[in-house]
Structures are given as C-alpha cells and as structure tokens.
Amino acid sequence: MKSLQKPLVLSMLSALAVMSGTSNAAPADGVYRATAQGMGGPLEVTVRVEGGRMAAVEVDASRETPGYGLEAGPEVAKRIAVAHSLEVDGVSGATVTSQAVKAAAEDAMREAGLLEARAARTLKPGEYRGRARGGKSDVEALVRVASDGSIEVLDVKTGDTPYLSDTAVREVVRAVTTQKSLSVDAVTGATLTSRGVTGAIADALEQAGADLAAWRKVPPKVEKTRGEALDADVVVVGGGAAGMLAALSAKTDGSLRPEKANDLKVVLLETKGYLGGDLTVCGGYVASYSGTPLNDRTGHSIDGKTVVEATLAMKSPEVAKMLNQDLAARVVDASGPAMAILMQEGWRVVPEDATRGLVLSPWGKDGFLHYTVARTSDPATGYRSGDSGYDTTSGSPAMASTLADIVRRAGVDVRLETSATDVTATKDKVEAVEVSDAKQVYRINAKAVVLATGYSGLDPESIKRFYPSLEGVIRTGGAGVTSFAPKWVADHGGEIALNPASSTMLGYDAVLGIDGPESALYLTTAAPWVNARGERFMSEADNPYRYGVGEPDAKGVRSMWIEPGKGRPIGEVLKQPGKRAWMIFDANSPANAQKAHLAAAGLCVEADTLPELARRAGLPEDTFVKTVERYNTDAAAGGDTVFGAPASGMTPVLKAPFIAVRVSAVNTIANAAVHVADDFTILMGPEGSNARRIEGLFGAGGAIGNAITNSGLGAHNATAIGSGALAGAEAAKYAERN
User: Fold this and answer.
1) Run of H or E residues at 360
2) pTM of the entire predicted model
3) What is the DSSP letter of 390?
4) pLDDT tens digits, residue range 458-517?
5) How many domains in the chain?
6) FMN-binding domain spans which residues (predicted)?
7) Does 262 lie in the same domain as 375?
8) Three-state SS for 272?
9) Which residue range forms the structural domain that includes residue 488?
10) DSSP output for 474-540
11) Are 559 and 355 a contacting pair, CB within 8 Å?
C-alpha cells in the first residue's frame, strides 16, 4: 500500500559537475530552497551543495494529486539531476507540477551559485494571446503589456464548466495582476481552470519576453491578522445544497420565500469560491419523490416511508442500525414541497426535466424502486446527462447558481473561500464558530450553528481516521470536503455514524471522474486489463453495472434502464497495486477516438510495439509482453485459459499502434457522518445510547448519517434539500428562543 508520507526524491550525485553557465566562483556549500506554485499549492525544491558541487536535489510534492503530481514532482527532480540541466521533459498529464519543480529548482540553483544570476529582462509592449489546458478545455488569455512593463489581462476564454470557471477566471486574474506573480492560489473547487488561467497568462508573457522563472516565484506569505468578532443568530457551515437550504430556511422561517425574510442575522460559510458544492457537478440529477410538477408530468409519486422501506431492503446492516426511520421519512417528504417552492422562485428545474428513474432494491417486485428524477438540462445546449452518457456538469451549474441567487435575494450573508476551523461549545451548548479566510481569522458568536459540511472527504486525515481501506482511491467531486462534522464530533469525545460502504467505482481521475463518452471504454469494451505488475487479474468479458435513458414516450417522458451486469471489475481493481489498472487496445479499438483527450490528461500512452508501450506505461516489459501474447493466443484458440473468458468476450491486441489507458478506483461519496435527534440537533453518539445533545448545533445533508436515504441518482440532492429546509427552520426557532 502506498505511503502518504511526504514524497522526497534524493538524487545523490557524488561527482556532479557544476552546471553550465555558472560563475567562476565556487558555489558555497549549504542547503538552498525555493518554492513555486504546483497544482495543489506551493511546492518546495531543495538543492544541497557539498564541496562546491551539487550533491542532491529534493522536492516536497506532498500537496500534489496522487497518481499525477505526487509522483511527477520527484520524477522531474530526478531528471534535472541526471541530465545536469533544467532542460528536461516534464511528465505528461502533470504539466503544472513539472513546471513548478523546474522553476523552483532554477531559483534554488541560482541562489546556490550553480547558475548565473538572471539578467534583467524587459517585456516587449504589445498584445499577446496565450493558451494552456484547463479542466475540460483549453484556456485562452489575451494579455496587454504596456510600455512601462505593467500587464493587463484583457480577456479570458474557456470552455470549462460555467459558474465554476467564472469564479476561477475572475479571482486568478485579479491575483496575478496585483501580486505580479503566476504562483497564486487556485480557487478551491476549480483548481484545473485556475491553473489553466495562470498557464495561459504565462504563455502570453513568455511571448513578450518574460522571465517565467521570476514570475513563478511564490510571493512572500502574508500572515493572517486577527479580525474583530462578529455576532450572528445562525451560522451555516457549508454552502452545498443542504447548506443553502438551511440558510434560506433559517432566514425565511421555513417558508423558503425571499420576500418573507426575517430579521435574523444568518451567515453562510463556504470554503470554495462559489456556492453549490456537489450540486454543481451532480449531472443535473435531483430526485422528486412527490409534490412537484415533475411528479405531475411522470404521474408517479412515492412517500418517505416507501423510500425508507426500499433502503432497508437493500440489507446493509450498518444503515439499518443507524437509520432513524421516522426522521428519514420526514426528510424525504419535505424535499418535494421545498423543491416546488424553489422552482417557483426561479430554481432552474422545469417539468420537462422529469424522468422515470429507478434503483436496484429487493423491495420492488421487479427488483427496483421506481421514482421520479429531474435531469436538468444544460441552458446553452439543452443536453441532459444520460441522453448519450453521464455528464457531471450539464445542467448542474445552472441548478447551483440559480439556487445561490435565491439565497442571496433572501439577505443571507454569504462568505466564500471562508472556512470554519472550529465550533466552540460550553457545557454542551454552542457558542461560536472560529473562521479563517484569505486575510484573517476571526470569531462569529452564534446562537445556532448548522453543520452542512457534506459527505466525508478523502483527504489523508479522513482516510486514516475513517477509511483506511480507501487509501489510494481518487476522490472525484467533493473538492475541499474534509469531513468537518464527523471530525468535530470525534475530537470532542463523540461516536460518529460510520457506514463502511461507499460509492467507489471505476473512473479515470479527479477531473474526468466517471462521466463523459470516454467512460464507454471501461463500461463496454472487453479489452485485456493489466495491473502494475503487467499481469491480467480477471475475466474482462462481463460488463459491470450499467444504466442509461430510453427514448421518450408519447408524453415526451423518458425512462431510465439498469443492467446489473455480471462482472465486478471495481472489486478486482481495488485489490491491485495502487488500486489502478491499464486497459490495452490496438489500432482497431474505439479507444482511438478518445486517445488524444485521455493523453492530454496523462491517462493514455501509445507505442508502435508492445515492449515500447510497456516502457511508456511504466510496466514490467517482459511480463507485460508475455501477458498480452498469451491473451492473443487464447483469443485465437477459442477462449481464455486463465480466467475462463469466452472468445466472444475477448478483443485481441494485434495491430499497431497500441494504446494503454489507465483506469482507477474513484469515489464520489464516503459515508462518515454524525447522528442527529428528531429536531436535527447533533448528538455525540447513536440515538438511544444516552448520547449528549449539543444544544444549538444542528446537522443537515450528507453530514448526518441517521436521517439520509441515498437510493438512486439524485437522491442525495433531494435529501440534502429536505434535511436542509427542516434543520434550518429548527435552527431559526432555537435562535429566536435564545
């Protein structure tokens, strides 16, 4: 199992000559450090000089993405050391990390005297258009350089997810121009777009003759000041669907109507640079169990009791043990009326989004629970996720942004890129929230606090405390989620609600996740899969669980379908080193249509021979070649002699060029949560265990484990809406009493 300790590469060079371009004076022995902005934050490179020569290069890439920058940082440092030069190739799919290592290494080497001091460069006045890769598209930046050397970013174009990318463009451009540095913080939740913006500006500046190494130096850290305390009636921590509903409900006495706003001071804190949380990347799905125009269109409604029964029929003992059935049913029943009001107030969900949904459950006579679900369309294209493959964005950003507009209209004090660092309580009664933003830390005295911090994260601490078996699994979605609520309860002596099951499935990485047309490669193709040892580990003939959406009926309503599948590749992938595998294709494969896109993300390599493919993928050459050759021989002979796959379920790898595509175990929801009472007050243990109540502290959404039924696409959004509306109303009543 891969260690999560700091990855430091130490390249010992016992007799490395001083790099070309140095001064005549021998460099002074010592340790020299410099930083540059990586993908996940500042990245530090250390150069050690002994006997006037460079003896070692180290890089701390611990903040970089596992499977990408985390490994790429040490690799680039190694290449610099071995080549005795900064002119080395970066690592495919980790461009930002590669550039950061080289920029920091150059600064450290200049400070050590291994390179000559930079000659001052003057920017050439003019307008320059730069380009770099963002999250799902290229980012273009038009930069004007004035005669005095000052710069102005005139325009930025990106095809990345609307709403999320808007914030990234605005904040990154502001930071680059004011700090005069490319090493600025990314907008949490929009890291790739942020890095695309800085990359495009860097490309433009390079055309103008800029010294990019100087521009990539990390600005001096500004120490946060202690701000004045703020008084509030209700503070909601977390600005996803549950948090927005809790804040809106508290501000409107449960009516959810902005025109009925009360006089309470309601503050909503969100770590990211935008409101919406997972609602922004949920594919536009939200379950509508009853009480909305969506149900009128499908002609199908179910109540909370039915949803709870179907959930229990799935026979998860952990869920059955923790679930407060009456409270869970109330949450489901509250979601529909809340959604109907939001639709009237301008939330972008319309009756035409209605779809007949279903989820596997032994409760149903046909093995399914049937319900109504909205598939919200993309406002620009009209596309709905599921029309031709799952798409995490489609209508999601529009759902999030219009809900955020309703919250702001009600007069909620929204504070973005602002994190709660602690909740203080005395004698089991909430008192305040400790807060940190980019410039200061401060305290918000509060009568009531709602923790709507989402499902637990896959940050290193959460994995260590709650999910050690998920080490190495990539989190897709849920950016910035760090399990605040369950950590707080555990840190204060409480017992959390822990469901070992989690939504771990096949996918690619934190960006591509599980969606898009490229997902068809691992869902439908029967190509050979190999692990990091170059060995096959299962029969690839059986498809995994699949679903889709059928053609519209006479009323124009579509219905989902589910094919349970016989294979369990995710279970097998989880057993492999690094919880990753490579799918192997040849020139006749449909993978060719996706290879450029996947290669740009560092997920695909191509070669004219199998040995070369193994080398490029980092696989043991001899073992890999023998594995593929045996697979091809078995396919020609009529069947798999290793795992029993029939020839009809095998796709031989025969025609060059050959392609290897990396697939990984990814996670969308991890289930460490807290317990709540019937009024959504957080308990320090399970109900019925005489667990202490923390008066004035409430829970909502994925942060609470004993009141949430997540059965099917969009269910988590519905229960977030229902629980947020109920918890916010309870918090307002408590604040008014106190």
Assistant:
1) strand 354-360
2) 0.84
3) -
4) 777 888 888 887 777 776 665 567 789 999 999 999 999 887 656 777 777 666 655 566
5) 4
6) 38-112, 135-208
7) yes
8) coil
9) 230-352+364-503+670-737
10) EE-S-TT---HHHHHHHHTT---EE-S---EEEES-TTTTT-SGGGHHHHH----EE-TTS---S--
11) yes
